[in-house]
Amino acid sequence: MIPIGGDPLSGFAAALDQVAAQNRRRQLRPSRIAGPFLIQQDGTRLLNFGGNDYLGVVADALTDSGVAARSELPSGATASALVCGWTPQHERLATAIAQAEGSEAAVVFPSGYAACCGAVATLCRAGDLILSDELNHASLIDGCRSSRAQRMVYPHRDASFVRALLSQKRSQFEQVWIVTDGVFSMDGDAAPLPELVAIAQQYQATLLIDEAHGTGVLGERGSGLCEALGLQEKIPIRIGTLSKAVGHQGGFVTGPRTVIDYLIQFCRTLIYSTALAPVTAAGACEVIEQMGGWGDRRSHLASLARYTRERLQRESWFSPSDVAALSELESGIPIVPLVVGSDERAVQLSRRLAERGFYVPAIRPPTVPEGTARLRLSLSAVHQTEHVDSLIEAITHCSS
Q1: Burial of 281 (0-12, 13-18, 19+ CB in 10 A)
Q2: How far does the chain reach from its first CA to its final CA, in angstroms?
Q3: What is the CATH number of the domain that holds 394?
Q4: Tell me, what's the pLDDT at 36?
Q5: Domain C-terminal end among 270, 292, 314
Q6: Which Pfam families does the UniProt entry name for this protein (predicted)?
Q7: How far apart are CA 249 and CA 109, in angstroms?
Q8: Could you tell me how far CA 253 lies from the centroid of its own chain?
Q9: Which of 32, 105, 137, 192 could be 260's S-S partner, Cβ–Cβ 3.0 to 4.6 Å?
């Protein structure tokens, strides 16, 4: 407790000292996209393996005519979507998303975080039960905490645990929601959707999936993990983002028209936020409308991810059993974690790589569990095998 007359900010300073002592103090560092696969920090150009521009959209502006047309649009929406912030650009974007996802309707949020947190908090009501994967993104976790439903966390990707919980508790709740990331952002693995779908059908539960890292990357037309597994009709409510493979900003929820209308009426992160800028909505719409035809980019990206894992296995970062544990689909996910254990080692290795011209961020708790600090390699369709080769040579040198 702070004594009477003491400094009311002293607790903040103590917390900052603590995270600094743990090698966990974060910093905002100005960064600039300096080319198709380059980032510039502190005046130095680095080969970028840290961003989520999976399809190379940010590094590869679509067309000069498209850029010119967007430059004529307002830079801000000026109000909530429910006041006057929902423009023709938002309407076109929502329609394009619904068509791409094979859904009745969609609604656009100002961020992926707002979409996840708001959808979970709004749809999961008092009297319901939420079963949430322990490694879900913070936006889903915060949505669970904000809802009035009871919450239980299950071990990562453990469908058997979910089944056992429902066999004991299903009758106690009006509705049950199984909430999970589709692709997990720090591990690059995928939720066991076929098993979860079967469990949901058996116990009359509803799956709610965040496709943030699957949108654009997985599926024949880039709609995500559900499309790749042929499960879109079985998982009708899906959340996505416009800030990763789509290369812009914002988030969305797609699903039955009744669900989307319910969110429009009651979702606080939609109602009480200024809408996405019209210029951003227009740019994201261009990508969504064309993304289905970018199979060559997805194919290259998946091949590059498999090549990266095979190279790292040869350097003993992964064991053969680690690689064998991944499905064919998972091996092509462009998120490759290199778990080093200690926070200090992760930060040190990231710094050494930067000195050799590579940006690979160190990921530490609480973003990942204690003792699993790591480097997170994020691949893009603009990367080539020679970029991966040079990176892995640098990793081998810097970790020796």
Answers
A1: buried
A2: 46
A3: 3.90.1150.10
A4: 78
A5: 292
A6: Aminotran_1_2 (PF00155)
A7: 9
A8: 14
A9: 105
What pTM does this model have? 0.92
Residues 257 and 280 in one domain: yes
Q: Which amino acid is at 65?
A: S
Question: What confidence tens digit (pLDDT) does each residue in 22-52 have?
Answer: 888 888 888 888 777 788 888 889 999 999 9
Say which range, 15-24, 179-188, 226-235, has the weakest mean pLDDT.
15-24
- For residue 319, the enclosing domain spans 28-54+295-399
Number of other CB atoms surrounding residue 234 within 10 Å: 16
Angstrom distance (rounded) from CA 74 to CA 56 = 25
Q: List the CATH number of the domain containing 102.
A: 3.40.640.10
Examine the domain organization and report whether 94 and 239 are in the same domain. Answer: yes
Structure tokens at 244: 């990763």
What share of the chain in percent tops pLDDT 90? 80
> Does position 246 have pLDDT exceeding 90, yes or no?
yes
- Among 251, 268, 292, the domain boundary falls at 292
Can you read off the two tokens belonging to residue 139?
A: 């936006």
What's the structural domain count of the chain?
A: 2
Sequence-ordered strand ranges (E) for 94-135: 105-109, 129-133
